[in-house]
From TrEMBL:
Family membership noted in the UniProt record: Belongs to the inward rectifier-type potassium channel (TC 1.A.2.1) family.
Organism domain of life: Eukaryota
Name this protein carries in UniProt: ATP-sensitive inward rectifier potassium
Main location: membrane
Compositionally biased residues, Polar residues: 236-248
Source species of the chain: Neoconocephalus triops (Broad-tipped conehead katydid)
Catalyzed chemical reaction(s): K(+)(in) = K(+)(out)
Pfam families: IRK, IRK_C
Domain Potassium channel inwardly rectifying transmembrane: 1-55
Region annotated Disordered, chain positions: 234-254
PANTHER family xrefs: INWARD RECTIFIER POTASSIUM CHANNEL, INWARDLY RECTIFYING POTASSIUM CHANNEL 1, ISOFORM F
């Protein structure tokens, strides 16, 4: 029976012996064995493929920068960090989320030990979706809606919070969803730093080259150490003084 089962499932031939119409039971068993064999092989192929293409394996090639930085961009404070993909196959429909988790005490005295606040982030823009074809800078603008708005450089170091970052996308080759996570503590946020460029254009070949050895490198830039709120107040006061000075000046022309 075992030999008959193996010969039927793997279609290696029966040799001199074979089933005939005189034995309908053997024909029924052969059909049942063929159907069962096809199902077993299909399940085994699916299990092996799913094992080899697990999303967890894909997340090992997704990189987050070791530190986040705060510097000015277009006159605004911005919290920035890098994400990168080491594989040639791309992550499509990639988007990023960031949440600041810290302790909060409500007006009624209730203690919320893990209060979560959403940070508005995007890849050099306003949207959370990113065009993930090379290492991308993720930017959070620190404005009046940001929980980092009242913190100066010194106050940021004394605060206790954690910024959790989640990168999600669809694996191009398998269509499966993958997710990678990282986080930044206050001592991992560098105030007055900026990331070094790592994408260069080669005129000889007409191609862009990514140097991942510079992925975590930063350099210092001139950045005020006051909070974004204080900086906005100073600018508003300066603008108000300039406006009063302009309206209060005598008219030189009749």
């Amino acid at each position: 029976c075992f030999l008959f089962s193996v010969e039927t499932q793997h279609t290696i031939g029966y040799g001199a012996k074979h089933t005939t119409e005189e034995c309908p039971e053997a024909i029924f068993v052969m059909c049942l064995q063929s159907i069962t064999g096809v199902m077993i092989q299909a399940f085994m192929v699916g299990i092996v493929f799913a094992k080899l293409s697990r999303p967890k394996k894909r997340t090992q090639t997704l990189l987050f920068s070791r530190n986040a930085v705060i510097c000015q961009r277009d006159g605004y404070y911005c919290l920035m960090f890098r994400v990168g993909d080491m594989r040639k196959s791309h992550i499509v429909e990639a988007h990023v989320r960031a949440q600041l988790i810290r302790k909060k005490v409500t007006k009624e005295g209730e203690v919320l030990p893990y209060y979560q606040q959403e940070l508005r982030v995007g890849g050099d823009g306003e949207e959370d979706k990113i065009f993930f074809i090379w290492p991308t800078m993720i930017v959070h603008r620190i404005d009046h809606t940001s929980p980092l708005y009242p913190f100066s450089a010194a106050e940021l170091c004394r605060e206790r919070f954690e910024i959790v970052v989640i990168l999600e996308g669809v694996i191009e080759s398998t269509g499966m969803t993958t997710q990678a996570r990282s986080s930044f503590l206050p001592n991992e946020i560098l105030w007055g730093h900026r990331f070094e460029p790592l994408v260069t254009f080669k005129k000889e070949t007409g191609e862009y080259e990514v140097d991942y050895s510079l992925f975590n490198n930063t350099y210092e830039v001139n950045t005020p150490t006051c909070s974004a709120k204080t900086l906005d107040d100073m600018r508003s006061m300066q603008s108000h003084q300039n406006s009063n000075s302009k309206h209060g000046s005598p008219n030189k022309y009749p």
